[in-house]
Amino acid sequence: MSQSIAAHPDRLLPADPGTRSIARSLLERVQDLPILSPHGHVDAAVIEHNTPFPDPAALLVTPDHYVTRLIHASGVPMDRLRPENATPREIWRTFCEAWPLFDGTASGYWLRTQFDGVFGLQQELGPETADSSFDAISARLSEPGFRPRELFKDFNIEVLATTDDPLDSLSSHHAIANDAAFHGRVLPTFRPDAYINIANPAWASNVERLIESAGDGATGYRGYITALENRRRYFVEHGAVSADHGVRTPLTLKLDEAEAQRLFEHALSGNATPQDRDVFEAHMMYQMARMSVADGLVMTIHPGSFRNHHEPTFKAFGADTGHDIPFAVNYTEAIRPLLQDFGTAKDFHLVLFTLDETVFSRELAPLAGFYPSVYLGAPWWFLDAPDAMLRFRSAVTETAGFSRSSGFIDDTRAFCSIPARHDASRRIEASFLARLVAEHRISEERAHELIVDIVDSAPRRVFKL
Amino acid sequence: MSQSIAAHPDRLLPADPGTRSIARSLLERVQDLPILSPHGHVDAAVIEHNTPFPDPAALLVTPDHYVTRLIHASGVPMDRLRPENATPREIWRTFCEAWPLFDGTASGYWLRTQFDGVFGLQQELGPETADSSFDAISARLSEPGFRPRELFKDFNIEVLATTDDPLDSLSSHHAIANDAAFHGRVLPTFRPDAYINIANPAWASNVERLIESAGDGATGYRGYITALENRRRYFVEHGAVSADHGVRTPLTLKLDEAEAQRLFEHALSGNATPQDRDVFEAHMMYQMARMSVADGLVMTIHPGSFRNHHEPTFKAFGADTGHDIPFAVNYTEAIRPLLQDFGTAKDFHLVLFTLDETVFSRELAPLAGFYPSVYLGAPWWFLDAPDAMLRFRSAVTETAGFSRSSGFIDDTRAFCSIPARHDASRRIEASFLARLVAEHRISEERAHELIVDIVDSAPRRVFKL
Amino acid sequence: MSQSIAAHPDRLLPADPGTRSIARSLLERVQDLPILSPHGHVDAAVIEHNTPFPDPAALLVTPDHYVTRLIHASGVPMDRLRPENATPREIWRTFCEAWPLFDGTASGYWLRTQFDGVFGLQQELGPETADSSFDAISARLSEPGFRPRELFKDFNIEVLATTDDPLDSLSSHHAIANDAAFHGRVLPTFRPDAYINIANPAWASNVERLIESAGDGATGYRGYITALENRRRYFVEHGAVSADHGVRTPLTLKLDEAEAQRLFEHALSGNATPQDRDVFEAHMMYQMARMSVADGLVMTIHPGSFRNHHEPTFKAFGADTGHDIPFAVNYTEAIRPLLQDFGTAKDFHLVLFTLDETVFSRELAPLAGFYPSVYLGAPWWFLDAPDAMLRFRSAVTETAGFSRSSGFIDDTRAFCSIPARHDASRRIEASFLARLVAEHRISEERAHELIVDIVDSAPRRVFKL
Predict the structure, then answer these.
(1) N or C: which end of chain B has fewer CB within 10 A?
(2) How close, in Å, is residue A328 to chain C by CA atoms?
(3) pLDDT digits 0-9 by tens, A37-87
(4) Domain A148-462: what homologous superfamily?
(5) Among the CATH numbers 1.25.40.340, 3.90.550.10, 3.40.50.2300, 3.20.20.140, which is that of B151-462?
(6) pLDDT at res. C4
(7) Could you report the predicted ipTM of this complex, rounded to two decimals?
(8) In chain A, what residues touch C441 (CB-CB under 8 Å)?
(9) Which CATH class is domain C53-146?
(10) Residues 6 or more apart from C406 whose CB is under 8 A from it?
(11) Cβ–Cβ of B104/A398 closer than 8 Å?
């Protein structure tokens, strides 16, 4: 791989020369628009304190389970990729040896784009360049211009949402918002999974802390609901625009209060079954929708991942270590109880994500094409890749048009990858629109309006930015 | 959008110049062939009486749930789109404001093609042209040449099948067939859903009427079966070629007579469960197949739509208001009981439709590639769109070839959209075949034969026209 | 169809001229590499004895259920395609009449390529050329250079794996391996389905023979397990590299020994239920994985086919007569028990196949992108066709890259089709890579390395050749 491909102005654009030329002009229209990132996992404290980035391995390898998983698949034991067991330079060497594995992957594309665009590497990665590239990136990381706040500006980020625990004080967000010297918006996101998933071993203690600190003196299920409402309000006051939910399935249920209370107490006593978990989660999704209707937080749902599939790895290295595996989901029947009551509620926004592509054309586009509340979440996780994003557009557009999509979501904790991810998304949107223009399905003038809407207006509109 | 795209001779054709040129020549081969529409929802009485079309809104907006659903999704309350609540001109204005939502959708494509080809509109739709376009279309609608019978001829329709209640007198069909001045064929289709789905609140009274009027004096389940057989014969005598079934799932079951009778009585007494509904429907699909083997009516099955998903909308505005949402289906095990007994029956034709694309390559192409009775229904409802139709061909052809498909089915109640829909289908077939030619997978001469077979011979053969 | 398309140097390559030119150069890189066929159904005895091929019908039509199924679907009764009922020439005529059905199918492509490349037919097939083509192929079959061993060399086959009964003496494999005059490798594959699937009517007697001949004197479940281990060892000693499993579903389970023994005895007594079948098969897949970890045989799993869907055809003509129909599968939860214990076992290779395309992006690529043992099986059966293979690459590469795939597997009993199938696969790999190059996602130099890896190194690595 020559370095040139990462810098090629036509990367990701369609090969047909006529279509490519249309795509180029569409891309140009949006290439300089600011980045809006309404869902991601960057730590606000890093921006508050403008913490320098650590070494290349800690920045680009160890926290990125897209990267470590594929190296692991090639036969490298997980501990060779863990900072407890290996030095940054050792980890970087392991990564450089594994670099050819990433050809054709989304991660490889983002990394290559960063190496070229952010770090200005002049060499192809590989075992021979492991040390020199480590040194080059390290040098870059020590430059004063290479701090989070400087990059935030360089990257042209306007809005960056983080993902936060409901009991988080949001002090970093507060400090950033009140810092006249910093012009970006860093918004918290309410993510109550650890207080809703009763299979989480910490659930009971989490809930206890939640009720104590925000239950207005109420106890039990009532205190629990009150505390969640209070903390959501606190998040709204600190700039949050959305509440995010990582659930097992898209199931929603409207339980009566007595039944909910019974399940809640049952779970607190430690006797809940896996089925109880699903039912309580389904009930709480209904409650979260009810609260979103009341407080205006956009509701986002991310279901369908079998978390910690390989128990030995989970036991040794914890969660988020690369073995969350998707499974089939059904939205049509599962989400219905929620939509019956809130599907047409005023200003309610519900963004539905999936790791199961089959629901794009079959369920999500039809739902988003009727319910004013429902928006199509951007292709997520294993699907936020060039071909998968094109399959998404092809699957949903003929039913739902362009107005029902959320806009791109980078969902990343890798701060330096943000521009590469948004750039890739813009290139794919340009490619898809260019094909429709080339096939005389939309006019080129209209495609120019649409790409601005997709890249800029949609996230503002859907996430109430 | 300039008006030109709707009139562009290359619309929907592939962008690659070499492939496009092949597609053009294939399209030319079939562009003037008559329209065969073996499944749709036009009202025969309109053709019998040559009823002038009403206003633009009543013709193009209010009855088309593809259109109203997307406007509703954008936040327009349903009642602003209902003739009881708004004047035609008001509805048309609402539609014109919403027009940009339809970019990239199948509905948008069909509408634009009609505006250009049928109504000769010289202006792009939008809020500023709402009144002028309303007036221009209204003027066109009042022209004597713009009546159903004249358009039937202009559109080059040879056969148009309607969808009819089993107790329909078919007087319109009879009148049309006996009108020497009219040369098109308008065929009834036997659609007994309302007499089979025991969850339909009107089922018991429907069945009572059915038995009384056609049961030959028999009562109960026997009378019911006899009456269905009799009404099918009546339809055959009036030119019907097919019986259509909108079922919840593709399940089929062979119950013994005593069990069927028990379920039937149970349902009549109002005590049936949702599971009873599925079992009785499955049993009746088996019975319908048995009758098709006997009387020759082509059997078509349309499963997998969750009807009336949003109950408040259903209660306020009734069925077919845009919130029927597809769900996953399985054909392989579900259809087996029927195919065990009738899969190789002489002259039995069974056309299987799906809203769940995943069964195209996995189940339907393999089934149609073995059973002489099984044909692949054309992509249906949310899937009768350019990209989806290409995905269908790609998914089924390598297993089942071209001979096992039903040919295009417009399934529409929008009479004026018929040419646009068939034209779009022909363009996509030409595009798919052109790619195979460009990839040297079939010869160009053979592609010319195949496109005629797909457009003209297949529907005649499969639907026994 | 002119003969030329089968010989066209650009067949199956993408239409866009720039991409095609890249694809051509990639194809050239691998066109002369030897054929590695690590999974197929050729009979080793045919190679041992260098048995002349029979007539054209027995070679190309009757044993190929891809071919007979589509002819059957067109309305030809199965018995007209059976050697018991029709002469070879009659069967060949029937086939020639049906030949246009195969346009666009994978089978048609392979056959056409054989007619051109292997048999040198100068005429297009059809009713008029039935006799002359029969004679031409017959003449070719009688040539001394047209024997299995000569073709093995002409086809440039290096390794050919067969599929064998666990009690097979492997005498043919032994003879071939010890024949200094023959340079190809013909490897047995351990396929124990008939000893594992308790629904197989011959299961009990199979198991009895197995235990008697290889149980080391042990009886019952212990003897059964011991015998399987022993026969696997025997296969390893005779060059086997893999064990193949045609299971109903991908379910795996770790039963304790007492429960397994109970189920085993229950099945022997003839009282097993369909659910017992699934549970016992799931348990045995776990055991097979355990044995593979111990003896090094690559484990391949082929689930998801509803065998013998049409019982009347099965009763009249037996298994493998064209009515095995795929159904939906789930791997994520089903394969987990096996992967919990063996997913990271040293040198364990587990190749997962599917007939349900939806699991490619959703489950298989994520699994293969984490577990060092898991490899993506090549698109199989109804999916080993040009478009389907491209969909596979598009679905898996962005998550799993290129290193996690098995390489192409022809899975065929049609010896003369082997070159056509491998050639088609190489063309599709070249097409996919060429697109990534054209889109500047990988460099052209790297694509040249990757195609060699895919075609040559991957099967050697994954199947331990």
Answers:
(1) C
(2) 8
(3) 999 999 999 999 999 999 999 999 999 999 999 999 999 999 999 999 999
(4) Metal-dependent hydrolases (3.20.20.140)
(5) 3.20.20.140
(6) 65
(7) 0.97
(8) 5, 11-12, 104, 109, 386
(9) mainly alpha
(10) C38, C351, C375, C376, C377, C378, C458, C459, C462, C463
(11) yes
